[in-house]
Amino acid sequence: MARADAESAQRVRKITVTLADGRELMYFGAVPEHPAEYPDRRQLDPVHVQSQARRDQLLGEWVIVACHRQDRTFQPDTSHCPLCPSTADRLTEVPAPDYQVVVFENRFPTLGTRDPDDAGDGDGDGLLAGRPAGGRCEVVCFSPRHDASFADLTPGHAAVIMAAWVDRSAELARIPGVEQVYCFENRGDEIGVTLSHPHGQIYAYPYITPRTDRMLDTCARYRHRTGRNLFDDLLAAEQADTSRIVLQGRHWTAFVPYAAHWPYEVHLYPRRRVPGLVALSDAARAEFCELYLGLLRRFDRLFGSPAPYISAWHQAPVHRGGDEFALHLELFTVRRAPGKLKYLAGSESGMGAFANDVAPETAAERLRQAG
Ligand SMILES: [Zn+2]
Question: Helices marked H in the chain — which ranges?
Answer without folding.
Answer: 155-173, 210-226, 230-241, 282-302, 351, 360-369
